[in-house]
Amino acid sequence: MRTVTTFTLAAALIATAAPVAMIGTPAAAQTPAARQSALKAAVAAPTRTPANTQRDRYRHPVETLDFFEVDPTDTVVEIWPGGGWYTEILAPYLANGGTYYAVAPERGQAGVRKMMEANPALYGKIKVGAFPAQGGPGVPDGTADVVVTFRNVHNMMMGDTPFADAAFRQMFAMLKPGGVLGVVDHRLPESADTAREKTSGYLKVSTVRRLAEAAGFQYVGASEVNANPKDTTDHPNGVWTLPPTYRAGDVDRAKYAAIGESDRMTLKFVKPR
User: From what superkingdom does this record's organism come (predicted)?
Assistant: First the structure.
């Protein structure tokens, strides 16, 4: 277990029209209860986008970040934040005492940069970097307490030039010894044809473990917090058949809405000391 300090966060932010970063004061040694309380305050903040909060029932941000041991004083790197779903939670949560890196290829940084420009009071402390770290500054080696990536490893495995092996090596390098890597992704049954990992958006747990362990990580364990037993994983348009994408449009939309978002693995690894 990592040894860290904690912040006691304000219960909520002021209205979205004039947001401020969360305010905290140093407290005693971190406890799971203190972390959970701080995460609940961050997730309940009124500055979050309503469309994002509607997905909490599928993404379980409090339980997920608690499982990954994300504390308010940590340096946290999010790999490929996309439109900033977790950025809305993590950037304010880490604003006083911690550091939040949003790292992506240059074209993938647009969503976070837009958030920073629109609301510098809330998101102005975000550090933006390149990932993979090619042609731009990345995260300095050995500086991160936690690296998280949500539904991105399958993208690293797809296409003509997969680079998942190199990506995991870079994530390993940016972490401090004892640092945590948290991975959430769409889960393919172990009995399924591995070739489906190239087209469906789903991955086997064994594949992610192989990638992480080959890079030097030790497997800590898994949480079922993001599991969805209704998801059969065999949809005509892969995982994108399900909400929120609904790639099939109105075809069987009610059926897929009833299933909900995908069945997901939630895996925790550690960089050995």
Answer: Bacteria
How would you classify the pairing of strands 24-29 and 5-9? antiparallel
Residue indicated by tokens 């075809």: 251
The residues, ordered by sequence, that sit 6+ positions from 268 with a Cβ below 8 Å of its Cβ are 67, 68, 180, 181, 182, 183, 219, 220, 221, 222, 223
| pLDDT tens digits, one per residue of 45-66 | 999 999 999 999 999 999 999 9
> Global pTM?
0.89
Exposure of 191 by Cβ count < 10 A (0-12 exposed, 13-18 middle, 19+ buried)? exposed
Query: Token pair 């960089």 is at which residue?
Result: 271
Cα 147 to chain centroid distance, Å, stands at: 8
3-state secondary structure 6-40: EEEECCCCCCCCCCCCCCEEEEEECCHHHHHHHHH
Residue 187 · residue 202 · CB < 8 Å: yes
Residue 40 burial (C-beta neighbours within 10 Å; 0-12, 13-18, 19+): middle
Which distant-in-sequence residues (6+ apart) come within 8 Å of 231 by Cβ? 242, 259, 260, 262, 263
Domain ranges of the chain: 30-230+262-270
- φ, ψ at 176 (rounded to 5°): -70, 155
What topology is assigned to 30-230+262-270 in CATH?
Answer: Rossmann fold (3.40.50)
Spatial contact of 271 and 176, defined as CB atoms under 8 Å apart? yes
Which tokens sit at 244?
């929120």
- pLDDT per residue as tens digits for the range 99-113: 999 999 988 999 999
**Whole-number CA gyration radius for the chain:** 18
